[in-house]
Amino acid sequence: MGIAALITWLLTAIGGFVLLGTWIAKGGTRQPRTSHLPPAVVFGHFLLAVAGLIVWIIYLVVDEVALAWVAFGLLIPVALLGFAMLARWLPVYRAQVAVGPQEAAEGHFPVIVVGGHGVFAVTTVVLVLLTALGVGAS
How many domains does the chain have? Predict the structure, then answer.
């Protein structure tokens, strides 16, 4: 199950890189900002997710259960920041559907990537928790 979590985490990261790259390319960090996503939230989400992934890879190598729990602990604020960004992105998406393209950087996010990133993220959190709990261990 640990390898499955790694795979879903990597798939989540790919989607996250696409979203981050789009956000930066479309002016998410430029002044004046048109984005509804604060850079501190975006980059905090990214950095905590990368830190958790590194801890998870170390866990897989050394098989120390405490590291699995550290990785899971890092995923909690990652998930909360992700939900906060989703909540701020949804009105931008709805406005774009209703009235046309918006100037917000996150208005350029591909919906399929946002959805896939979220689905893989939730799956990763569940798999990491189950692994830390020892479910499916041999």
Answer: 1
